[in-house]
Amino acid sequence: MFHCRVHCATWLLLLAAHSPVEAQDQRAALLRADHMAAQLSVDSGLASALHRSLHREGLLLWPGAPVVAGRSDLETFLRLQLVDSLRLTWQALGFELAADSSLGATWGVAVSTSLSDARAAPRVGRYIASWKRDSGQWSIAAAVFIAIQEPGATRSWRGLPLTRSQAGPGSPAAPFIGADLGFARLAADSGAAIAFRRWAAPEALSFGGGSLLVRGPEAISRGVAGPERWRWHPVAGGTARSGDLGWTAGEATITRPDGTALHSKYLTIWTREANGTIRFLFDGGNARPPVP
């Protein structure tokens, strides 16, 4: 069931900048853009959907791949990944819209079907997408797909950077990048369970490494509790012009007590609450290649 949480402060911004009818139209437009991208993926293939829907500077977080950023990286990724071997579609189950309708986010169920193995059962996973609106058109600023394919054999990612530098403080998304860095520092100092409980919004959702949906700070905290050491840094971010909604994407390493490391990447959707506090709304990630 779709939902959209709107604070009192958000309503004031909406009344100042947009009529209720216009806001309703933009909600519908956002969901329509999400649905059309999913349908194009089924009808013409994922490559066509990405070419049409991913912003020219957009990020794709594909399972097992490095962070794919921008058109050049996308073309390299499509040559290496052979996405035409599967059919992928998705369906939004929830969304969030900034007060000025310049940024939105959708999340929901993603389903992949192998086209090369007729005996393989469809895989049900999740996705999160951040959308930006330019000149009245919605495009994907960043998207992560989770648990939609079996982990494959080690693949050469020649032509794609295996790791990226931390996002700089000069970005327009600096408040959200700063929140992500504060979140990471608390996890490093006090453990993931404390950090996720502290930074999660009351209605936060986390997708972890599988299709399981975890809701609320306490449940999310229990899901990440353990002796593992978490380290991460944001590599990119975006913000609504109204400043009430943003996103960050980054790279993480989770180290087990025996010293083995799990390398991952993530997309986090952030909200600025009525009192100015920043908390995360949606968070999900998948594996990335280790850096030699």
Helix content: 25-40%
Tell me the number of structural domains. 2
Query: Residue-averaged pLDDT, rounded?
Result: 89
Profile the largest sheet. 6 strands, mixed
Radius of gyration: 18 Å
Order of helices and strands: HHHEEHEEEEHHEEHEEEE
Per CATH, the class of the largest domain reads Alpha Beta
Low-confidence parts: 1-17
Give the amount of beta strand, in percent: 35-45%
CATH topology of the largest domain: Nuclear Transport Factor 2, Chain: A
Global geometry? globular
What secondary-structure arrangement, pairings included, does this model have?
Blueprint: H1 8-17, H2 20-44, H3 46-53, E1 54-61, E2 68-69, H4 70-81, E3 86-97, E4 103-114, E5 123-134, E6 137-146, H5 174-190, H6 192-199, E7 200-208, E8 214-215, H7 217-224, E9 229-239, E10 245-255, E11 261-272, E12 278-287
Parallel strand pairs: 1-6, 7-12
Antiparallel strand pairs: 1-2, 3-4, 4-5, 5-6, 7-8, 9-10, 10-11, 11-12
